[in-house]
Amino acid sequence: MNDYNVHEKEMNVYELVIPKIDKMMLSIGDCSKLFPKTLAVDREHDAIIFEDLNHGGFVMADRVRGLGLEHTKKVLVGLAKLHACSLKLIEMEPEIFDRFNIGILTRHTTALYSMFQSSFDALIEEMKTWDSKWQYYCDKLEKMQPLFIENSLTVTDHEGEVDLRVLNHGDPWTNNMMFLNDSDGKPVDVVLLDLQFCNYTTPAADLFYFFYTSTEDEIRQNCFEELMQYYYNHFSDYLTRLGCFKKIPTLHQFQQHLLKKMFFAVNSSIVPLPIAINEVTCDADFEGLTGNDDRTRQFKRTVMANKKYHKIIQALLPVFDRKGLLDTLK
């Protein structure tokens, strides 16, 4: 993990970026909490001390069940704030995100490629045990096998000034957020946690990763376009309120941008999603996730054997296929 420099990056973002975002939101009258309060950044010991959110009533959601509609919308508003503020920050300080150019999946290091590839390979092996009607999709994934990493990397490739880029959270799944709920269980506030993989790239990376790893099955299957419009409406509204000079893309342009980057939906559904909903704790540690040995391969096989995951991915594969995402992309 040294290639990712996660400790220094997280200290930098909480010390140098988050206070500016908090101040920016206050300037437009938004007093809601987006990140935990940072009590101290101790660079000598590579440590950050945060407030105790539990004392404030914040709780984590059920990662296996996933988020319902209201909680999903609350997170999308939070991501819209983060993304919009980062665009305004770039206008004010053009070099502010130069040190945040490495996300989980990046061309800067191959350190975690084996984690992505082993998950993809494990899904193919699991699919070979399914009913013959899934052979069509298994064949397509096998053909894609040597291209999976490259197809995923193209999501983070940029095309000059025309490509939309923001500061991404980088790892926005259920366990990296906490909610303050009212007495009826409805979300009042959300706080985003763990910015070790934050990076300056397309907002599509955060949006696909969050949507496909952290929502309830019904929402994941049926509400993508609706919720991306919901995100866009808040994103564009915050850009306007913040006084951004950059021309705001139209909803149509934004949806085109998402479609262009949609292979990350495939990646998110195959790599982090089955791990997020896994309930088998044996070997479920960092080495089990990222290694390249028999222990890792066994853990990935166990994760892919989850019947809940089968139901999800079997519903998604035909959708991805109809969009051409299981074929040659270029």
UniProtKB/TrEMBL annotation:
Gene3D superfamilies attached to this UniProt entry: 3.90.1200.10
CHK kinase-like domain span: 48-241
Source superkingdom: Eukaryota
InterPro entries: CHK_kinase-like, EcKL, Kinase-like_dom_sf
Matches recorded under Pfam families: EcKL
Protein name: CHK kinase-like domain-containing protein
Originating organism: Culex quinquefasciatus
